[in-house]
Amino acid sequence: MKCVDDFRLRLGKQELVPIVTGGMGVDISTADLALEAARLGGVGHISDAMVPTVSDRRYNTRYVKDKLRQYKYNVANDDKSDVQFDLARLAEATETHVRRTMERKRGTGLILINCMEKLTMNAPKETLRVRLRSALDAGIDGITLAAGLHLGSFALMEDHPRFRDARLGIIVSSLRALQLFLKKSARTRRLPDYVVIEGPLAGGHLGFGMDWAKYDLATIVAEIRAWLGTERLDIPLVPAGGIFTGGDATAFLEQGAAAVQVATRFTVAQECGLPDDIKQEYFKADEDDIEVNGISPTGYPMRMLKNSPAIGDGIRPNCEAYGYLLDAHGRCQYIDAWNREVAAHPGAKKVRVWDKTCLCTQMRNFDLWTCGHTTYRLKETTRALPDGSYRLLSAEHIFNDYRYSKGDAIALPPG
Ligand SMILES: Cc1cc2nc3c(=O)[nH]c(=O)nc-3n(C[C@H](O)[C@H](O)[C@H](O)COP(=O)(O)O)c2cc1C
User: Fold this and answer.
1) C-alpha 211 – ligand 1 centre gap (Å)
2) Of 19, 149, 191, 320, which sits with the fewest C-beta atoms within 10 Å of its C-beta?
3) Residue 91: band (very low, low, confident or very high) from pLDDT cuts 50, 70, 90
């Protein structure tokens, strides 16, 4: 019986262990987590979601405070179109995060940055251009363009000196999305170096509608593989979503996948950015405790634990400090939902908003516990402690379990 270590991911001249840790914003896939994957010869993702906020937490910068001070006059105003990101500061924050991560890189693996294109930041094109280019400037090994696929993203980097040598990949959930991307970026005469195919069991936002359960990752991968074959395109495919064991991963590799992208198993790693008490919530969850709902103001379905404090919370929109989801006209679905509830409950000290959430604030505060479908199995991967809690794992342990375990086996940490 084979295991993941019998395979290698080939990207250009480089040979890698075919395990990719997925990007998890905001600062859930920390630099520490990504660096472990790279040290062990695989591929680790950091995330560029809300990077100024992450920089403040990690590197003692003051981007959020300064932005809030600048726009404080607008806090009570429903119209957020004034609230813009300073592009120079955004570049500086991205460069700080990437450079500080790359300086610590050891081993033969890669560090990529997951770039969430649905963070429209009140100026979608300009802010995305800055985020992409400053990550390249700061020496990132590559960029994964994540869901919300901005079809013009390659063009935004086209004249960057690293456009052809950095690894550039995309995440899609359907053949159609891939076809669209290839068509729109054909003019740049550059194919993606890899395509992550994210199925319906993944964490975070889903590239499916609320009918996500009708879809199946293996079927989508086979469909994309067959089409690439007929087009004579050789692009490494990286399935993601619900790959829980080394055996699951090996099955995809045996069917021709170049690598697998995994995330949920790493949410309970010591190196993961979630606070430790929240990691215990992930361990404790049963299948019934997980839902896919529509509360993300991006409009994409999102999977999360039902007991996330964010659900039903009604905080005042915090766009002056954050504002990552403001569209090109300074609007966000949460602002509308919050205003509706405030108008319906005149004089109330606090309102509840059930249909949308203030995603920026809730993700920043780790109050929205997004997770993959297989989260309810995490307790199988460790040992229970006498007080009823579960032992956290090292990223190295989880990585090596994927790499070496066969069949349904999951290696437990030493007793
Ligand atoms: C807690 C969590 C947060 C995530 N956040 C993001 C994100 O910010 N951007 C993104 O493209 N994918 C995100 N994902 C998806 C992962 O990168 C990955 O593709 C997917 O979850 C893999 O499936 P698995 O979790 O079943 O292993 C997230 C996943 C989890 C579990």
Assistant:
1) 19
2) 191
3) very high
Contact (Cβ atoms closer than 8 angstroms) between residue 12 and residue 193: yes
CA distance 60 to 339: 34
CATH H-level, domain 4-274+388-404: superfamily? Aldolase class I (3.20.20.70)
The mean pLDDT value of the chain amounts to: 97
For residue 203, report the distance from its CA to the centre of ligand 1, in Å.
4
Indicate whether this model's pTM tops 0.85: yes
pLDDT at position 230, please? 98
Q: Which residues line ligand 1 (CB under 6 A)?
A: 22-25, 28, 47, 49, 114, 116, 146-147, 171, 198, 201-204, 240-243, 261-264, 267, 370-372, 374
Domain boundaries of the chain, sorted by first residue: 4-274+388-404
For ligand 1, atom 18, which residue shows the shortest CA distance? Answer: 22
pLDDT confidence band for 368 (50 / 70 / 90)? very high
Three-state SS for 400?
helix
Contact, 182 vs 170, CB < 8 A? no
